[in-house]
Specification:
By secondary structure, this protein is mainly alpha-helical. It contains 15 helices and no strands. The protein starts with 5 loop residues before the first helix and ends with a helix.
Length: 286
């Protein structure tokens, strides 16, 4: 049996502190979402409320806009994630090939957008010219390829031996056939990684929706929660003490955090195995 050294103890202590830094704020958010305003004011750092209540969730979920937000965000995920995956993985595969004309120029232009972009005004003008403003497609098409995800996927594809694609080409396979029949089955970890990233991005979509969408019937969940929290904050500052206690703004904020993160927490366990492998291999291999 290996003897435990001082370094081992130090590593355990550091890891334990890091775990507490992650777990304690999350438990505190859950506790506040079930707490009353009086209990929160008496104990700001609580891990479990003594008198749990569902009033914060009732005030949050009682708004009819929540249903609209869930439907719109789900639609953005179901339409946007396949588009993100197709564009990101096909672009990563194409730029991972050994040689083609203008490869360095294309890669440089793509990576340049990580540092500089045209801004929101040209994007808004483009969406207006395409007559996509105030539609869900403006949000979906506003972000097609994330360059960071592209870099991770490309690094993974570069680690796959070129002999596989060359053998497929000798058998008469085209580029799309090579991508979907050979490369992607070998790239399940990176596909799961990029998919999880895209799901989180699309589910948390709010900025583009705030810019492009004015129709309340198609606003996503994050914008709905933002509006409810802001209205709760205003009402708690302007109403009576009794009404403010019923509309506990911090409790509603924490309830909104739980409602937002819960769907992603349900998806993550199914992708965790591939995600851990994919993010490591895609990040370190060139």
């Amino acid at each position: 049996m290996k003897k435990i050294t001082f370094v081992d103890v130090l590593v355990f202590v550091i890891i334990g502190c890091l775990i507490l830094l992650i777990v304690v704020p999350f438990l505190n958010a859950i506790a506040i979402s079930f707490a009353t305003q009086r209990e929160y004011l008496n104990n700001l750092l609580m891990l479990a409320p003594k008198e749990p209540t569902l009033d914060n969730y009732r005030n949050l979920l009682g708004d009819q806009r929540i249903i609209t937000g869930f439907k719109t965000s789900a639609l953005i995920v179901f339409l946007g994630v396949p588009l993100n995956l197709f564009l990101t993985l096909s672009l990563a595969f194409g730029t991972s090939r050994a040689c083609f004309p203008g490869k360095k120029l294309i890669l440089g232009a793509i990576l340049f957008t990580m540092l500089f972009n045209g801004g929101i005004l040209p994007l808004y003008m483009q969406m207006r010219e395409l007559k996509l403003t105030n539609t869900i497609w403006s949000v979906i098409l506003a972000s097609g390829v994330n360059v960071f995800y592209f870099v991770i996927a490309r690094n993974f594809f570069c680690s796959i031996p070129q002999s596989l694609t060359e053998s497929a080409q000798l058998d008469g396979a085209g580029e799309w056939r090579i991508l979907f029949s050979i490369i992607l089955p070998l790239a399940k970890p990176i596909v799961a990684t990029v998919a999880l990233f895209c799901i989180v991005d699309r589910w948390n979509e709010w900025y583009n929706a705030l810019i492009f969408i004015r129709d309340n019937s198609i606003i996503p969940l994050q914008v709905v929660l933002r509006s409810i929290v802001m209205e709760s904050n205003i009402s708690s500052n302007t109403s009576s003490m009794e009404a403010a206690a019923r509309n506990f703004d911090m409790g509603i904020k924490m309830a909104a955090v739980i409602v937002t993160t819960l769907p992603i927490m349900c998806v993550f366990p199914f992708l965790q195995k591939h995600f851990t492998k994919g993010i490591m291999v895609g990040a370190i291999k060139a």
